[in-house]
């Protein structure tokens, strides 16, 4: 059985596309295939089409909330006609309204109701981390503290893969032998190969 740790960006891309109209989903699939593969992966997990041990870090839950807040900020900037160059200033000044809080909760509930409650994806239980791996990931591979913690959790859980859209993370960890960090598109290719599936078009 394949085992994989799912990064936060995989969840957020699924959430964004899952709320789009069918027409926009098709457009997304044509024009942004790399992100659409996140959606396809989680949809297939949710439909129980993929057999595997899929996990997510509790650290990712906090990051998930932050990314939803950032997306809300980008949406508000677009509505106000504000340049993307002003994101950090706008984000610091942005007040979280009751509607924003509802949107954050809705995102978490949509994910957890679809995957966590049905045990299709499991949160990693907190445990003592391997200090050697954590130090190596921070010093040798130059990961951010948050990424280093998440990857260390994946290693300690015995996950064979970590699935992420973060190219910087993939490039930085190509030589880690303990866990393979791959893009969702690559991971879908691996699954299809293992299951002898034909590529989808």
Q: Can you characterise this structure?
A:
The model has no long low-confidence stretch (mean pLDDT 86). The longest helix has 23 residues, at 58-80. The protein has helices spanning 8-18, 22-31, 33-46, 58-80, 87-93, 98-116, 131-139, 145-156, 167-172, 184-194, and strands at 2-6, 52-56, 121-123, 161-163, 180-182. Strands 3-2-1-4-5 form a 5-stranded parallel sheet. The protein is globular, with a radius of gyration of 18 Å. The chain is built from 10 helices and 5 strands, in the order βαααβαααβααβαβα. The protein is 61% helix and 9% strand. The two termini are 25 Å apart. Helix 1 (8-18) crosses helix 4 (58-80) and helix 2 packs across helix 3. The chain is of the alpha/beta class and 201 residues long. The protein has a single domain (2-194), classed as 5'-nuclease (Rossmann fold), CATH 3.40.50.1010.
The counted number of beta strands is 5
Within the CATH hierarchy, at the fold level, what is the topology? Rossmann fold
CATH architecture: 3-Layer(aba) Sandwich
What would the average pLDDT be, to the nearest integer? 86
Outline the biggest β-sheet. Answer: 5 strands, parallel
CATH class division: Alpha Beta
Oligomeric category: single chain
State which percent range the strand residues make up. Answer: 5-15%
| Secondary-structure element series | EHHHEHHHEHHEHEH
Q: CATH H-level name... which superfamily?
A: 5'-nuclease
Number of DSSP helical runs: 10
**Tally of individual domains:** 1
Brief description of this entry?
This protein has 201 residues and is an alpha/beta fold.
């Amino acid at each position: 059985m394949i085992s994989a740790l799912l990064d936060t960006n995989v969840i957020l891309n699924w959430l964004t596309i899952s709320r789009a109209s069918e027409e926009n989903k098709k457009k997304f699939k044509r024009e942004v295939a790399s992100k659409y593969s996140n959606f396809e992966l989680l949809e297939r997990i949710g439909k129980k089409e993929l057999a595997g041990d899929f996990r997510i870090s509790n650290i990712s839950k906090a990051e998930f909330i932050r990314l939803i807040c950032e997306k809300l900020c980008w949406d508000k900037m677009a509505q106000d006609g504000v340049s993307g160059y002003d994101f950090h200033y706008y984000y610091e000044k942005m007040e979280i309204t009751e509607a924003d809080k509802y949107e954050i909760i809705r995102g978490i509930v949509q994910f957890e109701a679809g995957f966590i409650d049905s045990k299709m994806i499991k949160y990693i239980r907190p445990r003592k981390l391997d200090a050697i791996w954590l130090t190596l990931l921070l010093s040798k591979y130059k990961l951010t503290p948050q990424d280093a913690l998440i990857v260390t959790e994946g290693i300690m859980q015995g996950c064979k893969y970590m699935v992420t859209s973060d190219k910087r993370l993939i490039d930085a960890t190509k030589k880690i032998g303990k866990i393979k960090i791959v893009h969702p598109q690559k991971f879908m290719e691996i699954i299809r190969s293992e299951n002898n599936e034909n590529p989808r078009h």
